[in-house]
Each structure stands twice: as C-alpha cells, then as structure tokens.
Design brief:
Strand order of the largest sheet of chain A: 4-5-6-9-8-7
Largest sheet of chain A: 6 strands, antiparallel
Number of helices of chain A: 9
Oligomer: homodimer
Structural class of chain A: alpha+beta
Number of strands of chain A: 10
Helix content of chain A: 25-40%
Distance between the termini of chain A: 42 Å
Order of helices and strands of chain A: HEHHEEHHEHEEHHEHEEE
Shape of chain A: globular
DNA sequence: AAGTGGTCTAGACCACCAT
DNA sequence: TGGTGGTCTAGACCACTTA
C-alpha cells in the first residue's frame, strides 16, 4: 500500500494537484485520511520520496516538493548511487544506445582473485564491450564473473552467453540465477592510454572517468568485477550528498 | 532510543560479540527484547545501518554483518554521497590536512546567478582555497555564497570571515545562521589547465576529478556554489550503488 | 513447519515551527 | 498556541528462506 500511496503522490505532484503554490504537500495526517491508510504507511511512502530527493521534510513546518527534482520524475537517471546498466542509463537520458561486444573469454582470475573471493587460478568469464550514444563511443567496459557461479549445464557456453546477455545484470539473472544486491564502486580520473583512446575515439591522454566496481548478491558473495571508462567530456554523474549518520559513538570524541 | 540501540549494535559488532561466525545478527524480535524496546525501534536502527552498508538484511533469512564495511566502522569516509567538508575527509582518512586560503572577495554573481537563484548583479562572497594532505596540494576549491544570506551586521567583513571559517559549512553556520541540508553534485573528469596545474603541482593536461555542486538549506534556498578539482592520481571517491526505487508508475511501461 | 524480515495498524507523546 | 513532522509502542499478519 505504501507503494500505491507513493505512486499516487508522485502523479499528483506531477499534474500539480498535490502541492500548494509554495510547494507544500498536505500533512501526513491528512494524506493518511485521504488514502485511507495509517500514518505510518504515508510516512513510509514519503521517506522513499525524500531519499530520492523528490520532497524535503521539515520538522514542525511541513513537507515540500523539491522543484529541482520534480522536473523529470520517473526518469531520474545517471545518479551515481543508482545501480543501473549503463546502457539503460544512456537510453533513459538522451539518445539511442548501442553496444558492441569486443571480446568474450574465460580466463584465470589472477589479480581479481582477491575482490571476487576466488582462487587466483579459478576461471572467470570475461566480457569487454563498448557502449555508444548516438553512434559515439562513450563507455568502455570490462567485466568479469566467476565461472563457478554459472549454472553447471551452461558452463561450456558461458563466454558466448555473457556476450549475448550484454549486461552483468542480465547474465547473472538468466544464467547464474543471481541478482545484484548492491555494488561498491570507486570513481577516479585517469588519462586515456593508446588502447582506450582508440576505442573511445579520443586523444591519448584525454581525461576519462574511471569507475571500478564489485557487485555483490544479497548473501554478500561477489558476483562481478568491472572496470569502466567514460569519455570525460561527454559523461557526468550526479549525486545528492547529505550529512551522514554518525555511526561513531559521540562519547568517543 | 533508536540511536542508542544503533550505537550498541555497532559497538557489539566491533568487539565481535554481536554476530555469529557466519556474520548473522540476532533476530529483530530478540534484539527488541534484549534492549527493551519495540521491534519498530530496532528496525529503525537496523535500517540506518543498512543504508550505511554496515549490515545486509535478507527477507526470511536474517540480518548479516557486511564484512567489507565493518572493517572501519565509525570512520567511514570519502563516500561520495556523504556531505563532509573535504578537509575533514582528508583528516579522517589518512594524513594531516592543511588549508591555504588563496583569495577572498565579494563579486557579482554573473554566471552563478541561475543556480544560486539571485540576480546576475547581486554580490556573492567568494573564497578560493587549496587543501593539502601531508603537504601535497590535492584539492583546489572555489566557493561562492550569496551575500544576502550573511547576517546584516557582518556584511562588511564577509570576505574575511569566509576565509577565517575555512569551510562553507562553518561560514554558513556561524555567520549566516544556516545549515546545509543537502547538496547536488556533478562529477566529471577534466584536464588541468595552467592555473590548476600550478596550484596542484601537476602537469598541464593531467587528469583531474571535477566536482561541481550547489548546496541547499532545508527550505530549498541555495546557499552555496562550489567547484572543486582533485588530483586524479591521489583522490578517489567510493560509493555504494543499489537498484533504485522505481518512481515511475509501472503501468506506464 | 519454524523462524525471519517486511508491512500495516491505531494510538500516543514529543520536538519543532509558525503565528 | 495549533499544526507539523519525529519517535515509540504493541500487536497483527504476510512473504520469504531454510531445513
């Protein structure tokens, strides 16, 4: 029901029938009456909208629509903390997306053994691809999935299936019976080497965004490792940043 | 009380007395008994720990410690979605942090008028600074705060006070009576121009992480604009990425 | 089948903001 | 001072995992 309430609030915000001229939304008590649910359920829905940045809640004052966000609800994209397939990211944001699979193979884990929590000699399925936005190559991806996760009957065809699946998510869901629960990423700036420059059709030395990440299933088993390079001049990530919850004991300070 | 429960759980995880050998935490029902609070309160605490990535909850199975995170609880830092003063970021992560104020001034808003929601001719207080980690310059920051936010009695000394405060957060709290509620950031990769290269003691053309952001108070008033450049070879940001909440109505697809 | 987390309820009180 | 969001309670039922 919280989900239903959320959707109704969003569409009411979109068509302008929810918020007053100052952007204020009806109180939680009123909403719970209007939708015929408990106040707790309304709060659950509003909390999710708050995390997404669509509304801002002010203790004692009310809940307000965030005009910076409501401009394109339902198509929030390229937020760095959202784990979306980069292909969908491109598709949702602007142009046509295309993918070219550069290479698929089964190779030993080697340097990735640590982060994938397998032996260095264990085989991993590898896929290298190039993503295009409006025919321009903008992202180069190299992905690795431990072969031991692939359904036993499909192990022989793993490399080809990875290529056919096109994304980590789909490959893991279809052929490993796993979903990605979260991924831990690291973002940095690097310059294009000869190989990347050739693929991304940019100058050697051009600035690139590098996103390196490990995906985990809900049981905390690492399910993929990926290194992605983005044309620095064409791709940006957005992120809402907030004061963090203090996990440290304040007494300790 | 949720806060108290959270702290107790964290320290129990730290000293190893909370989780079993498989990392599982006692059930919510048991925790609520143990701490003498309702289950809802325990869930509130666990939810915060889940957002921070310290634990993972699995419907039907239990709640587990995330070993990737619990290694340094209480000092989680350099997470991109956490709005921390960059100086504290350096300090908390490794070395001694130092700051050199390069320039303070009051200038017209001009190009920043749009994102700060003031007139182009309105004055803004500007501060440019350089942050050092172990004597190496690693971050260049340029910040702007609308002068109209500064307490009237301090307007004349605004530029100097901004320099003395050293961070946006402190300046806004001390002299504008405002706290930053959230900030919207954009991260990209650029190459160092002559000016930045000189400040950051790197090659012209070296890859830099560029973080551009607008800070907002809880009433959604923009309170600062900042452009920050990070030495790409020395600074990385980490981020937990998760599947996003669908805000779009699924019927629409 | 037993145990877990996920959701919802109805009510209460508090902390905060505005007027 | 009245209305708002923030927190907590006690209980119920459901959905899911695991053995």
């Amino acid at each position: 029901m919280a989900r239903q309430v959320l959707l109704e609030i969003v569409s009411a915000i979109e068509n302008g029938s929810m918020a007053g001229s100052d952007g204020q939304i009806p109180s939680e008590a009123e909403l719970s009456q209007r939708f015929g649910v408990s106040r707790g359920t309304v709060r659950e829905a509003l909390s999710q909208l708050e995390v997404a940045g669509l509304v801002v809640r002010r203790h004692g004052a009310g809940t307000y629509v965030n005009p910076k966000m409501s401009s394109r609800p339902g198509s929030i994209h390229a937020w760095f903390d959202e784990a979306t397939a980069f292909m969908d990211m491109i598709r949702h944001s602007n142009h046509e997306a295309a993918v070219r699979i550069l290479r698929t193979a089964v190779v030993p884990a080697e340097d990735l053994a640590g982060c994938l929590e397998v032996e260095a000699s264990s085989p991993v399925v590898h896929m290298e691809k190039l993503l295009f936005s409006a025919s321009i190559p903008i992202i180069h991806c190299a992905n690795y999935v431990p072969l031991c996760l692939v359904e036993p009957s499909l192990v022989d065809r793993a490399a080809d299936l990875f290529g056919a699946a096109e994304t980590n998510y789909r490959f893991l869901e279809r052929h490993c019976n796993r979903t990605v629960h979260h991924q831990q990423s690291e973002i940095s700036a690097v310059e294009a080497d000869e190989v990347l420059a050739a693929f991304l059709e940019c100058r050697v030395g051009a600035p690139l965004l590098r996103v390196e990440e490990v995906g985990y299933a809900s049981d905390l088993v690492p399910v993929f490792y990926g290194v992605n390079h983005f044309r620095g001049d064409l791709v940006k990530f957005r992120q809402l940043r907030r004061p963090s919850i203090d996990i440290a004991d304040p007494k300790a300070e």
